Amino acid sequence: MKKTIAIIGSGFSALAASCYLAQQGNKVTIYEKNETIGGRARQFKNEGFTFDMGPSWYWMPDVFERFFLDFDKNTTDYYELIKLNPAYRVYFGVDDFINIYDNLEEIKATFETIEKGSGQKLDTFIKQAKSNYDIAIKELVYRPGVSPLELITLETTLKLNQFFSTVSTDIRQKFKNERLIQILEFPVLFLGAKPTKTPSFYNFMNYADFGLGTWHPKTGMFDVVRGIEKLALELGVKIKTNSPIEKIIVENKTATGIVINGETIQADIILSGADYHHTETLLDKEHRAYSEKYWESRIFAPSSLLFFVGFNKKIENISHHALFFDVDFNQHAADIYDKPKWPDAPLFYANFPSKTDKTAAPDGMESGFFLIPLAPGINDNEALREEYFEKIITRFEQLTKQKIKNNIIFKRSFCKNDFVTDYNAYKGNAYGMANTLLQTAFLRPKLKSKKVRNLYFTGQLTVPGPGVPPALISGKLVAELIQKSFRS
């Protein structure tokens, strides 16, 4: 018997889940609190400039392709991809930067010029990373996180040190140059944890980086949102915006509906793609599976200070993606995870989509997106935002050897308070819960409520974890779990 399903939120995991559930024949409606869909992947437009407000890296293209193939479609049916070359640039100082190119041979050659013998070491390292990537895709990330057996089975395939050593330890045993180490440690930041706390197994992210490359949807990551939305609508999904959920109705320990703007909407199944902690606050206390103490004990990925900036001229000496590692990497990480505070000297990331996409800015102009990782729950106010913009834009000018401050047409900031307001994000986190050893697979919050029947969850706080590809997988996993629950 097909079900009426209400989905809370319209981020990648919710959109993906809606497609799978509609494919099963269910009547599916998405309810989004904001004016536009996409969750953290919304789009912002102003004065002829266009910005992706959240995810801007398109990695693991095979996961996107697999998603669309599940519906006998291809990514090319919905959007066009451009492979970036260089994939990104990393700045370590004035006239000191490293380009990461779009193929492993050139990357190995670059490494070799910096540290003798590192090219061959990188080749061996990436082969191991590819092996782990294949195992992750086949054995781990497409599992629903319901049993310890999922990891026990995985351990029979891997050496134990893949889980009990760390990415940082593994890299530092092989490479000595600090700049190369930082480049190799960088990809696991997408998992939301420090390299020193991330199991070695997750070096598969290095294969995602160097092996599969960095791509850009032709007019931005919102192309992917639009593509999945189009697929969902083709499958019969209904989408309603400006629909904040006020309460999840529970009768006899069973979810039966939601309340939106005072109106009760009945449903056989409630699936939340919204923040997990926030979703449970929509339940009466006795129906919540996780206590406040539990959430306080978790290691969360960083929040972020974002700036969307329009420039009235073209920016020079810069690539589409650029990382600024000209300050102490470890100190900034400590300021996020060990003793949370605003960093004295922040690392930052800059993205200029108009370098690739001419629709992102008016002719002769440039759109710039800047990001500083911050501790979740940190104090946030306009004065601090302005202080830190001044810090990074001054360093940007120095490192790229150009003046751009006077060429700013407009600037919009987005930080911890906005993550709370717009996404109900726990402590204003930007990326969910970190993938540490004790927060992997079955050790993450469950897809299925432990206390309320017919209530399910998807997204970055449950399995498989943070990031856009994991969000698509999470949507698939929860849809399969729902189907299985009603088949048995």
Q: What's the helix and strand layout?
A:
Elements: E1 4-8, H1 12-23, E2 27-31, E3 43-46, E4 49-52, H2 61-69, E5 81-83, E6 88-93, E7 96-100, H3 104-114, H4 118-140, H5 149-157, H6 161-164, H7 167-174, H8 178-185, H9 204-211, E8 215-217, H10 222-234, E9 238-240, E10 245-251, E11 254-260, E12 263-266, E13 269-272, H11 276-281, H12 292-297, E14 303-311, E15 321-324, H13 329-337, E16 348-351, E17 366-374, H14 382-400, E18 408-414, H15 416-423, E19 455-457, H16 468-487
Parallel strand pairs: 1-2, 1-13, 2-9, 6-15, 13-19
Antiparallel strand pairs: 3-4, 5-8, 6-7, 10-11, 11-12, 14-17, 14-18, 15-16, 16-17
Helix pairs in contact: 1-10, 1-16, 2-16, 3-4, 4-9
Which key features would you list for this structure?
single chain; 488 residues; alpha/beta; 16 helices
β content, as a range?
A: 15-25%
**Structural class estimated from helices and strands:** alpha/beta
Q: Strand tally, please?
A: 19
Q: Given the structure, what is the number of helices?
A: 16
Tell me about the biggest sheet?
7 strands, mixed
Describe this protein's structure.
The protein contains 16 helices and 19 strands. The protein is an alpha/beta fold and 488 residues long. It is globular, with a radius of gyration of 22 Å. The longest helix is centred in the first third of the chain and has 23 residues, at 118-140. Helix 1 packs parallel to helix 16 (468-487). The protein has helices at residues 12-23, 61-69, 104-114, 118-140, 149-157, 161-164, 167-174, 178-185, 204-211, 222-234, 276-281, 292-297, 329-337, 382-400, 416-423, 468-487, and strands at 4-8, 27-31, 43-46, 49-52, 81-83, 88-93, 96-100, 215-217, 238-240, 245-251, 254-260, 263-266, 269-272, 303-311, 321-324, 348-351, 366-374, 408-414, 455-457. A seven-stranded mixed β-sheet has the order 7-6-15-16-17-14-18. Strand 10 and strand 11 form a beta hairpin.
